[in-house]
Amino acid sequence: PLTPMTPVTPVNSASESSGIVPQLQNIVSTVNLACKLDLKNIALHARNAEYNPKRFAAVIMRIREPRTTALIFSSGKMVCTGAKSEEQSRLAARKYARVVQKLGFPAKFLDFKIQNMVGSCDVRFPIRLEGLVLTHQHYEPELFPGLIYRMVKPRIVLLIFVSGKVVLTG
Amino acid sequence: MAYQLYRNTTLGNSLQESLDELIQSQQITPQLALQVLLQFDKAINLALAQRVRNRVNFRGSLNTYRFCDNVWTFVLNDVEFREVTELVKVDKVKIVACDGKNTGSNTAE
Fold first, then answer.
1. Three-class DSSP labels, A33-92
2. Which of A31, A35, A151, B96 could form a disulfide with A112 if both were Cys (CB 3.0 to 4.6 A apart)?
3. Using CA atoms, how far apart are residues A93 and A84, in angstroms rounded to an integer?
4. What's the pLDDT at A87?
5. What are the protein's UniProt keywords (chain B) (predicted)?
6. What is the pLDDT of residues B25-40, one digit of tens each?
7. Second CATH level (architecture) for the domain A123-169
8. Each residue of A133-165: pLDDT tens digit?
9. Does domain B3-49 have CATH number 1.10.287.190?
10. Which of B61, B62, B66 to mutate to test the interface with A (most CBs of A within 10 A)?
């Protein structure tokens, strides 16, 4: 039995030769438009926008290409979610910024940053999760059917399922 | 106060036009016209809530949506309105929808 001092990372060496490439499913990014925004004004004039200040203090706006959702705050800060690549996330964020600009606000595009990326893949064979539980993992099948592996280097969280499907995030 | 949502309908607009004519010819005051419209609001809201029983289904593709001040506004394209008896197809329809739960009430949920 392996001691807690020897974390095993079989996933790394296996994926280099297996040819399995995780597919990007979601990218979350943020950007600062650097000007105060009148959210009600934006909600009334932009298309595909929702604003319910009682529930959430931001305008929720969507565009079809790249298919994404943005949360726009009165501070001028914005979150962009749903893109399938870093470039698409940046492009989408620029489109939202342009919408805001066209409504008359002096929007800039400062400090664009990718905050999180989510990928998924299939190793194509069943995994015995009970055998994987060492350090860096949490596995409580009653609570959640996936094993939560918090890899240290790189700092990634993997959700590993008996089906062989793996979700990577962080 | 009942929703003024129904003023911009064929019925509501006809009423407003008639009232405007009466104001022009000085047969009624603008204040009276306002009172008539407020009564129209109450009457139409009540009638739709209590006297309409039939159900219509519709399906189309969503062009745009908006939610602000608790009012949903949709624009749909290529819509089919279906009632048991008949089918109506339109290229474009705009739907403005207010919360049906607390009509005229100001209390927060």
1. CCCCCCHHHHHHHCCCEEECCCCCCEEEEEEECCEEEEEEECCCEEEEEEECCHHHHHHH
2. A31
3. 13
4. 97
5. Nucleus, Transcription, Transcription regulation
6. 999 999 999 999 999 9
7. 2-Layer Sandwich (3.30)
8. 766 677 888 889 999 988 888 999 999 999 999
9. yes
10. B66
DSSP H or E run through A96 = helix A86-102
Token readout for A17 is 């030769």
The rounded distance, in Å, linking the Cα atoms of B53 and B46 is 13
Which residue of A38, A52, A69 to mutate against B (max B Cβ within 10 Å)? A52
**Tokens 């190793």 -> residue:** A123
Residue type, A49: A
Token code pair at residue A50: 């929702």
pLDDT under 70: residue ranges of chain B: 102-109
